[in-house]
Amino acid sequence: xxxxxxxxxxxxxxxxxxxxxxxxxxxxxxxxxxxxxxxxxxxxxxxxxxxxxxxxxxxxxxxxxxxxxxxxxxxxxxxxxxxxxxxxxxxxxxxxxxxxxxxxxxxxxxxxxxxxxxxxxxxxxxxxxxxxxxxxxxxxxxxxxxxxxxxxxxxxxxxxxxxxxxxxxxxxxxxxxxxxxxxxxxxxxxxxxxxxxxxxxxxxxxxxxxxxxxxxxxxxxxxxxxxxxxxxxxxxxxxxxxxxxxxxxxxxxxxxxxxxxxxxxxxxxxxxxxxxxxxxxxxxxxxxxxxxxxxxxxxxxxxxxxxxxxxxxxxxxxxxxxxxxxxxxxxxxx
Length: 334
Ligand SMILES: Nc1ncnc2c1ncn2[C@@H]1O[C@H](COP(=O)(O)OP(=O)(O)O)[C@@H](O)[C@H]1O
Ligand SMILES: [Mg+2]
Description:
The chain has helices at 3-15, 19-35, 39-56, 73-81, 99-113, 115-120, 139-150, 159-162, 169-184, 198-202, 207-222, 241-245, 258-269, 280-288, 294-311, 321-333, and strands spanning 61-63, 82-88, 128-132, 154-157, 187-190, 228-233, 249-252. With 334 residues, the chain is α/β, with parallel strands linked by helices. The protein binds adenosine-5'-diphosphate and magnesium ion (MG).
């Protein structure tokens, strides 16, 4: 391919927002430039590419362009059901949880990495995980971690759009999504899985709810072992028990204990210049943070850091514990 052809393809994929193909052509052009001895140009292009990717990955996730693979009606309908298509750089280091939970999740990842070995023994491969527990305790985060560890593309499903008051429509939407996952060996992430409970309000005799549960059970049965379903909910009681039973792993992500709170604090400040002076004040903050979610604690800590900066702009980087203590009090009062 000539240089001009590469440029034409780059323009095309760039305008179509087709990140995957764009990256592939850019990499081809870099290779081509090296081979044709345009080394400087190749290096410049390489650094542009690297910077661009760094910006996108600043939060650990790379969001891919909207679907360009479908034409016509199907394209439109699937687009509405899929909130996001992403790859993730998160790994187990990012998630604070019980050792037993980490072990379960590592086994899950290992099963998929050695799927062929299990196949040789005709053993089934787990591919359905349910995360449950209070809000802000890492259900969404744990899903990103699995996507990162498994190195698979993850489709985040908009369950709000999937669940429809029109009879039969919810099942149809779910089938569409599972069909797509089956053809791409990817992860389907059904966040806020309890949204399915809305069906009970739409249809008082619960007939539609039962039909949808049966559809999901069937879709689970026919899901290829390379494809993965992750569901998350903070209202596990709202979910049909037959459905819960069908998950290979049910993982409870609960509120942090004091050891986990300290781990969260350390992880949050380890890559910053900020420090905390261990003191009785600090101990009482840990005590007071009991019962709060990881998310809320982290939020108050980050706000305390910001306010510390404003309070004493040229002093050291020691977090003002009085400020933080007040923020925790406010957060708990909310
Ligand atoms: N178990 C955890 N370990 C580390 N950080 C956490 C954990 N739980 C929550 N967080 C922090 O709070 C944020 C929000 O958590 P999230 O995964 O969205 O909670 P959930 O989905 O359970 O409501 C995360 O991005 C992370 O910064
Ligand atoms: Mg969540």
